[in-house]
Design brief:
By secondary structure, the protein is mainly α. Helices cover about 50% and strands about 0% of the residues.
């Protein structure tokens, strides 16, 4: 039987759930994949990090990054603050620090509120998600701005 390609989202969720201490069986059940798929992915991920010579557990940059996270959490709740802005500030403090993609990944892995994808029926509900200032709505007939 041919191997099915695992989506990147599922790979990230496997990594997150594994780092939170969930077992392979639980991860497989939560994500709807087989236990062997989870096992094979975790083994491949471990081999890849070993091949690159990366030691994720004993990294001095990680301590600097984790000390910067509380500040990030407080700043991200403000309007107009993005991860890109925080990363530039982080790089100005620590010039030889992580790249933007690693910064975002570690910040995401550091979060405690892990969520999974929820299947929705089309036209069931409408969700609007936007960032920035409050959106204004103009009524075309009365020219009233709400």
């Amino acid at each position: 039987m041919a191997r099915r390609i695992i989506e990147m989202e599922i790979k990230k969720q496997i990594e997150i759930l594994n780092s939170l201490g969930y077992g392979k069986k639980t991860i497989a059940r939560e994500l709807g994949v087989s236990k062997n798929t989870v096992k094979n992915y975790l083994e491949a991920s471990l081999e890849a990090s070993d091949a690159k010579g990366v030691d994720w557990h004993n990294d001095s940059h990680k301590e600097e990054l984790h000390s910067f996270f509380p500040y990030c959490c407080s700043e991200l709740s403000r309007k107009g603050v993005t991860r890109q802005i925080l990363w530039v500030e982080y790089r100005s403090r620590y010039p030889d620090a992580y790249s933007y993609s690693q910064f975002c990944e570690y910040q995401w892995l550091n979060r405690k509120d892990v969520s999974l994808h929820i299947e929705q029926q089309p036209r069931d509900r409408m969700y609007v998600d936007f960032a920035g200032s409050k959106m204004t709505i103009a009524d075309l007939y009365t020219d009233e701005i709400k």
